[in-house]
Amino acid sequence: MEQDLSVDKPIFQQIAEKISAGILDESMAEGDRIPSTNEIAKFYQINPATAAKGINLLVDEGVVYKKRGIGMFVADGARQIVLNKRREDFYQDYIIPLKGEADKLGISNEDIHQLLEEER
Question: Is the full-model pTM beyond 0.90?
Answer without folding.
Answer: no
